[in-house]
């Protein structure tokens, strides 16, 4: 339980540096391309990439949305469809940011033949995050390992439910009540 907030804090510490490096690299690539083909041609290429990316995102979003609706209609778990929708959305945002590096990264997330790699990575990250937040399970080599517990003898003097009277559901001494204490190892 104490490791999840620390992990999030470590990740957030790197975000400003990643954004700064991305902006510097984008400017360097734009200047290099502008020196090679000219300023107006570079601007036209940036606009053309954004238009093609917007068209592609719209097309792939429609497919992802149809897949999500189909999975919900048939009662299947829409894990792949949700991951696809999230990747198309993130890719679309990257394509809308002016720059060639973000366009390439966005296209990798949006294109249907490169998206499965991103989908698998996203599902692993979400599974690790969800299991980490739960705080009771670990992931070892991609498999969820359940927590281990041990039982301790019941101590009625520490139980607050004992003061609530015998009418309390699952009160100690009532049928169905298991007296004991579960302790996480």
TrEMBL record:
<keyword id="KW-0812">Transmembrane</keyword>
<feature type="transmembrane region" description="Helical">
    <location>
        <begin position="40"/>
        <end position="57"/>
    </location>
</feature>
<feature type="transmembrane region" description="Helical">
    <location>
        <begin position="12"/>
        <end position="34"/>
    </location>
</feature>
<feature type="region of interest" description="Disordered">
    <location>
        <begin position="147"/>
        <end position="185"/>
    </location>
</feature>
<protein>
    <submittedName>
        <fullName>UPF0716 protein FxsA</fullName>
    </submittedName>
</protein>
<feature type="compositionally biased region" description="Basic and acidic residues">
    <location>
        <begin position="152"/>
        <end position="164"/>
    </location>
</feature>
<dbReference type="Pfam" id="PF04186">
    <property type="entry name" value="FxsA"/>
</dbReference>
<keyword id="KW-0472">Membrane</keyword>
<dbReference type="GO" id="GO:0016020">
    <property type="term" value="C:membrane"/>
</dbReference>
<dbReference type="InterPro" id="IPR007313">
    <property type="entry name" value="FxsA"/>
</dbReference>
<feature type="transmembrane region" description="Helical">
    <location>
        <begin position="82"/>
        <end position="101"/>
    </location>
</feature>
<keyword id="KW-1133">Transmembrane helix</keyword>
